[in-house]
């Protein structure tokens, strides 16, 4: 009977995730020694300030990100076709290409770095929800800033730049507020998205 109990316990321990076995969560390659860092402290401060109203707003903004990233070049393309405006159609291609390349690079970096989400490393931290995949860099932040900066470069007017960057900044903040990305994930995403938007500038008319 004891042998059966021992075998059952061993199998159960191997079936548990690392966080449940060690009590410390998965290892963060950015901070392999573990412990409290500025990254997680910022998320804890934001989590302490959550309210139902704010959470609903930031979750909705975050969820809208992919739709906005598609709507911007699609809208320009349709408008360019209707108006017979070749530069507008070219700008649609530029913005769409910038966002697409950013997404591909983001996926590749995530697979290389393999940084666990904050709640997987810090098991006492509670996010608003639990997405899959890896944490670095933030895909929402990189896509939003890629689209916003590409749009701002295509149409460098204050009434385009201001709302574009406000939306991108809000999207980046929402990822931290929701507890699904570290500040360093968001910073990496912003740099990736902005860098790609400038690198793809050769597609502008």
Backbone shape = elongated
Sequence stretches where pLDDT stays below 50 over 5 or more residues: 1-23
Give the name of the CATH architecture. Orthogonal Bundle
Query: Helix amount, in percent?
Result: over 70%
Q: How much beta, percentage-wise? A: under 5%
The sequence of SSEs as H and E is HHHHHHHHH
Secondary-structure-derived class: mainly alpha
Q: What is the mean pLDDT?
A: 87
Annotation, overall tally of beta strands = 0
Roughly how many Å apart are the termini?
A: 77 Å
Enter the CATH topology name.
Answer: Vanadium-containing Chloroperoxidase, domain 2
Number of helices: 9
How many distinct folded domains? 1
State the major sheet: none
Radius of gyration over all CA atoms, rounded:
21 Å
Class in CATH? Mainly Alpha
Describe this structure in words.
By secondary structure, the protein is an all-alpha fold. It has a single domain, classed as Vanadium-containing Chloroperoxidase, domain 2 (Orthogonal Bundle), CATH 1.10.606.20. About 70% of the residues lie in helices and about 0% in strands. The chain is built from nine helices and no strands. It has helices at about 1-15, 20, 40-50, 50-85, 85-115, 120, 140-155, 160-175, 185-200. Helix 4 (about 50-85) runs parallel beside helix 7 (about 140-155). The chain is elongated. The model is unreliable at about 1-25 (pLDDT under 50).
Descriptors:
205 residues, mainly alpha, Vanadium-containing Chloroperoxidase, domain 2, 72% helix, 0% strand, disordered N terminus
């Amino acid at each position: 009977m004891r042998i059966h109990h021992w075998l059952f316990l061993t199998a159960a321990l191997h079936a548990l995730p690392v966080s449940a076995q060690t009590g410390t969560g998965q290892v963060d390659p950015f901070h392999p020694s573990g412990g409290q860092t500025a990254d997680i402290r910022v998320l804890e401060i934001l989590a302490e300030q959550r309210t139902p109203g704010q959470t609903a707003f930031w979750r909705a903004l975050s969820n809208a990100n992919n739709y906005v990233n598609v709507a911007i070049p699609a809208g320009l393309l349709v408008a360019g076709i209707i108006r017979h405006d070749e530069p507008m159609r070219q700008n649609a291609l530029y913005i769409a290409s910038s966002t697409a390349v950013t997404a591909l690079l983001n996926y590749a970096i995530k697979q290389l770095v393999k940084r666990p989400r904050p709640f997987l490393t810090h098991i006492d931290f509670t996010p608003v929800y639990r997405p899959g995949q890896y944490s670095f860099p933030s895909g929402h932040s990189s896509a939003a800033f890629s689209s916003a900066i590409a749009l701002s470069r295509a149409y460098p007017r204050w009434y385009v730049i201001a709302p574009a960057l406000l939306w991108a900044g809000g999207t980046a903040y929402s990822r931290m507020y929701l507890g699904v990305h570290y500040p360093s994930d968001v910073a990496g995403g912003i740099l990736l998205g902005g860098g790609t938007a400038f690198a793809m500038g050769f597609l502008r008319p």
